[in-house]
């Protein structure tokens, strides 16, 4: 029983056997490492760009910021939009829902009397403005040809059969202006040089314009342009003198009100065309805003 018990405890009985077992263990580990290194170094490594052409590699390393951006030449001629594009970007604000008495596109009854006036009259009213209709629909950046195309598009959708105007031929205007420019350049050369005039006495600096001049300019612009919408609250415009309607707008600050009036603004409750559809100077637009704000405080 004693001998059998000792035999089941361990097969290592001498120091020599222990040394052999330890040496064998390390030998197995070393051989495993050698085989692993050999396997890794003999296998060819391929990166993400392996086998790609130079164009493909260039596309991979191109800056992400370039995606979605198209560089435009500021000196390139303006590309005129068609009538539907102008309608969708500008005219639909009023003519899409019949705001401020504007005839809805497709309503032959509302457009009939206007179409009967003729294309030239419709175009004149669209470019210059008429009553609640601001000049060029409140977008002064539109070319006259673009306005004409929008008029033809809306009219034809409502029963007319006008022909869409074509863009003016490129270079026609510069060619016509060339002789005049040459004549203007020749005139100074033919005119004898005049003796330098004696320096005029320095005039005193003009006095600063009184604040009432600015207020008068604002009142005048309101009466000629702003009243079309702010006089009756058309298209969500706060009515003149309505303190409740003006309060949240006044809270935005003077700079924000001036910016919206000059550049235009479209929100949930309505839209404001740039400069109210007028071609007034920025200072006069600010004065008109101040005039309306003062009446609503």
Helix content, binned percent: 40-55%
| Beta-strand proportion | under 5%
Q: In oligomeric terms, what are we looking at?
A: single chain
Largest sheet: 2 strands, antiparallel
Any idea what the radius of gyration is?
40 Å
Output the helix-strand order.
HHHHHHHHHHHEEH
| Strand arrangement across the biggest beta sheet | 1-2
Number of helices: 12
Number of strands: 2
Low-pLDDT stretches are 172-201, 203-208
The secondary-structure class comes to mainly alpha
- Distance between the amino and carboxyl termini: 113 Å
Give the overall shape: elongated
Overall pLDDT confidence: 75
Report on the structure:
With 297 residues, this protein is mostly helical. The chain is built from twelve helices and two strands. The protein has helices at 2-9, 15-42, 54-61, 83-95, 108-116, 119-128, 144-157, 172-190, 211-230, 243-250, 254-263, 282-296, and strands at residues 265-266, 271-272. The protein has a two-stranded antiparallel sheet. Helix 4 packs across helix 7 (144-157). The longest helix is centred in the N-terminal third of the chain and has 28 residues, at 15-42. It is elongated. 21% of the residues are buried.
Topology:
Layout: H1 2-9, H2 15-42, H3 54-61, H4 83-95, H5 108-116, H6 119-128, H7 144-157, H8 172-190, H9 211-230, H10 243-250, H11 254-263, E1 265-266, E2 271-272, H12 282-296
Antiparallel strand pairs: 1-2
